[in-house]
Amino acid sequence: MSEILFCKIDSITIIFAVLNNYLKLALYSNMNALNITISAKLYSKNPDETELGRRILSKSIELMDELGYEQLTFKKVAREIISTESGVYRYFQNKHQLLTYLINWYWGWLEVKMAQEFMLLNSPEEKLKRAIQLLVLPMDQDERIPHIDERALQRMVVAEYPKIYLTKDVDQENKEGYFLGYKQICETLSQLALQINPGYPYPHSLFATIIEAAQSQQFFAEHLPRLSDSSGSKEEIVHFLTDMTLKSLYD
Fold it and tell me: Which phi and psi (to 5°) does residue 38 adopt?
């Protein structure tokens, strides 16, 4: 009788486990609509709503990845997409606004990516480790958004990100929502930290540091190697950031 009872309990446990995994996969597969919120202060006309706007985004990422922010001009973008410079200005007031839009888009897309990945994980520690991997390791192309090259955008963020807030206008731009994407990523990871250690007093400070280091260590490893202990391997950077995060939370 006891063997039959245990058999029934085991069967029920297996059924619940299968159903749980099925629901997770169903939720994961249904998250096809990107819900990226970007402040309307970051554009004059929403580029994601028109073919020309999407071409501007695509070519701007390509040129900024190739030439750098300083060498990018709207004239170069217009020439590459066979449009006019004034046509680009209809979407963005200047290239600082364009850069800030693209980086906010990246953080918003990364948050969607994290939400998808977290559906398939159980513990907050697993989610935190995966989040750090997503901050550093090269991304796969998202087929839902063919006009955005995520790997080029990721390289651009590593190279150019600090330029969006190292300005005299940072306080006003902060009020206008220029940094909402970055703040939301930081908040998401801070909440995971508090699930691991509810008494940890510095979750936002920790993850503002981790997110910054995820970018700067990649840049240093490639361009200023004496400022990094990585031999150029992104996995080493992931290990370093994960080790620092968990030791901070558990010590």
Answer: -125, 135
